């Protein structure tokens, strides 16, 4: 900086000497009068050099201030370290010992498995199995393979199951579900209380022959009473009884439609219309007969009334 100021002073000194040589006392300019005293050259040149140095230094300092103002502060970047995380800094779900975390993971896996298995178990221990089989057999007896669709049949079967098992479900809700949600019972106690009404329902619908067959196949000792029969033996016996009852009802459903098929086939043979498919004539007649006798109402009443 000192060298720069000295250079400016030298330039101004040279300019002053040239001006003094042209006019020792005054120099007339186009834009005004600039007074230069010939006898005081040294002080005048010093003032000019000082003013020039100030004028040159001021813009530099202003530019420096502007540049510093425009520079944004550097963001704070956290440093990565290999310091182990303390137990107090861990997330709550990972708190505890390794054994506790393993137990929590096993409970979560068991809960997800139960959520996947429970719908199938409910089908096996409720009235849904008998109802859906009868409705499917009705569709085949009429001769319509895809009407009503499976979604409609399953929906009807679910609602009929709710109507049929309403007392049982109410008992399960009162004795098992509500106390568990209130925190008054453990999961094991809730299961033991909730399975009792379902077992009573299954025992009423299960034939003794089917129950004896399952006990024989399991090679278990003969039970002294119904409480000694395990769920592993009772549930398949109940399902066999439900299949038998569903096939019996389905046979009764098939009979009138089979008679219509026989009558239509005989008429076509008598008229010599052997090339005419019997299903073309029989299907509209089956639908008409089913509507005239209020087939849906009769069938649903029979299904709900078949449970005792």
If you had to describe this structure to a student in words, what would you say it looks like?
The protein is mostly helical and 308 residues long. Helix content is 72%, strand content 3%. Strands 1-2 form a two-stranded antiparallel sheet. The protein starts with a helix and ends with a helix.
Q: Which range does the strand content fall in?
A: under 5%
**SS-derived structural category:** mainly alpha
Multimeric organization? single chain
- Rounded mean pLDDT is 73
Question: How many strand elements?
Answer: 2
Number of helices: 11
The whole-angstrom Rg is 51 Å
Residue ranges: pLDDT <50 for 5 or more in a row?
17-43, 54-60
- State the major sheet: 2 strands, antiparallel
**Biggest sheet: strands side by side, in what order?**
1-2
Proportion of helical residues? over 70%
Euclidean distance between termini CA atoms: 111 Å
Question: What's the overall geometry?
Answer: elongated
Element-by-element helix/strand order: HEEHHHHHHHHHH
């Amino acid at each position: 900086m000192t060298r720069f100021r000295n250079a400016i002073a030298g330039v101004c000194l040279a300019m002053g000497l040239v001006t003094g040589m042209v006019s020792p006392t005054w120099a007339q300019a186009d834009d005004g009068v600039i007074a230069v005293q010939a006898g005081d050259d040294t002080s005048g040149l010093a003032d000019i050099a000082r003013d020039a140095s100030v004028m040159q230094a001021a813009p530099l300092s202003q530019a420096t201030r502007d540049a510093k103002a425009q520079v944004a502060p550097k963001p704070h970047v956290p440093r990565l370290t290999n310091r182990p995380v303390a137990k107090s800094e861990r997330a709550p779900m990972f708190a505890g010992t390794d054994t506790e975390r393993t137990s929590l993971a096993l409970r979560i896996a068991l809960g997800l498995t139960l959520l996947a298995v429970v719908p199938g178990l409910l089908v096996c221990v409720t009235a849904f199995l008998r109802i859906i089989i009868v409705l499917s057999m009705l569709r085949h007896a009429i001769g319509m393979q895809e009407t009503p669709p499976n979604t409609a049949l399953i929906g009807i079967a679910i609602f009929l199951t709710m109507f049929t098992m309403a007392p049982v479900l109410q008992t399960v809700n009162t004795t098992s579900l509500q106390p568990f949600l209130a925190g008054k019972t453990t999961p094991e106690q809730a299961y033991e209380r909730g399975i009792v009404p379902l077992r009573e329902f299954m025992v009423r619908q299960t034939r003794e022959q089917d129950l004896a067959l399952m006990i024989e196949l399991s090679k278990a000792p003969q039970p002294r009473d119904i409480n000694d029969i395990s769920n592993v033996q009772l549930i398949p016996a109940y399902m066999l009884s439900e299949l038998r009852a569903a096939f019996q009802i389905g046979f009764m459903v098939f009979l009138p439609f089979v008679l219509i098929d026989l009558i239509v086939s005989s008429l076509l043979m008598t008229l010599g219309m052997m090339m005419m498919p019997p299903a073309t004539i029989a299907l509209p007649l089956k639908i008409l007969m089913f509507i005239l006798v209020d087939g849906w109402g009769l069938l649903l009443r029979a299904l709900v009334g078949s449970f005792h």
